[in-house]
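To illustrate the input format used throughout this study, we show a single complete record. The first block contains the structure-token representation of the backbone; no residue identities are included at this stage. The design step must infer an amino acid for every position from geometry alone.
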């Protein structure tokens, strides 16, 4: 069982090597972080680093402006689940990969937002680092919030992924451990395995295609004929 962690939150690139060592040790085949140069970097055989950017801003206009700048420079593009306006826009725009639930903000996933996301393929991202950093009542509240969001996503057909949100290498978890975290959050075993082991690779495959030179729009690609020159 293998997976790619699409949400590593290391503070600076000096920690990159220690994250790579830990991720490889626990069987991950890669992870996404802002601390990498290039869309995809392969520091070792069978292991990939993906460029991730999290859009931040006080209003929808600021977020939209960042999309145009960062989409072509990022393999993974995420927006935090904040206001209804921003959440609904992000869910309806197929340039956004992830809508990230933040337990520090009092913003729940609305059913209307989840239905929009189901139509575009925007995934709900649940980061489990807050569970590792909390105890007692605080942890119980986070679990409740996560379970409610997962339930809403499943009921509406919005796809879900789990990621670590790891700020330290020890916050990384194997695919098997992530699957059990998914079950804690209300997923059945088969669904949790799909969320952990299949969905991240689907996003990666989709975005490789979208960011390729022949992609025009969904369902429209430039086809190279036998007598045409291949792209360099």
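Output of the design step:
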């Amino acid at each position: 069982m293998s997976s790619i962690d699409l949400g590593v939150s290391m503070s600076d690139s000096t920690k990159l090597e220690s994250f790579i060592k830990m991720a490889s040790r626990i069987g991950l085949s890669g992870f996404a972080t802002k601390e990498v140069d290039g869309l995809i970097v392969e520091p070792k055989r069978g292991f990939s680093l993906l460029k991730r950017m999290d859009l931040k801003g006080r209003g929808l206009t600021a977020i939209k402006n960042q999309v145009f700048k960062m989409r072509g420079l990022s393999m993974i593009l995420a927006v935090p689940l904040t206001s209804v306006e921003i959440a609904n826009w992000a869910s309806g725009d197929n340039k956004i990969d992830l809508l990230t639930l933040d337990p520090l903000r009092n913003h729940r996933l609305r059913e209307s937002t989840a239905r929009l996301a189901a139509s575009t393929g925007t995934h709900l991202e649940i980061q489990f680092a807050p569970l590792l950093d909390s105890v007692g009542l605080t942890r119980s509240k986070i679990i409740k919030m996560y379970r409610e969001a997962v339930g809403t996503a499943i009921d509406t057909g919005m796809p879900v992924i789990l990621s670590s949100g790891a700020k330290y290498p020890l916050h990384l978890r194997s695919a098997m451990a992530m699957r059990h975290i998914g079950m804690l959050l209300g997923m059945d075993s088969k669904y949790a395995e799909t969320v952990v082991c299949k969905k991240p690779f689907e996003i990666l495959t989709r975005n490789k295609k979208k960011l390729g030179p022949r992609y025009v729009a969904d369902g429209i690609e430039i086809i190279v004929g036998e007598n045409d020159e291949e792209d360099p």
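Structural context for interpreting the output: The chain has one domain: 4-212. The chain is about 40% helix and 20% strand.
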